[in-house]
Design brief:
Blueprint (H helix, E strand, L loop, with lengths): L27 E5 L3 E9 L4 E6 L6 E6 L4 E3 L5 H11 L5
Antiparallel strand pairs: 1-2, 1-5, 2-3, 3-4
Length: about 90
Amino acid sequence: MASTPTVTPPHRDPADVAPAESYRPSDPVWVYRDGWRAGVIEASSPRAVTVTYRQVQHSGTGVDTFTAPYVTSRADSDALDDRAVKLMRRMPRR
């Protein structure tokens, strides 16, 4: 999607809902949490995704698990995207 979604999860067309397992770490997404919020995928499984997302009421971020109808791809850029790239580039411990 090119901008913030306008349809709530219960009203989304099931054909437009990507499977949770199709998302990869650092993918930019919208998540529905009292409205659509910009987020970044942390992990995914066949049943759900874990997302770091921007909270509107607070200056920080939240991390939560969402099922597929509550997540959709995001094309708009957000400050969270830079954070995700930095996290993905970290060197693993030896």
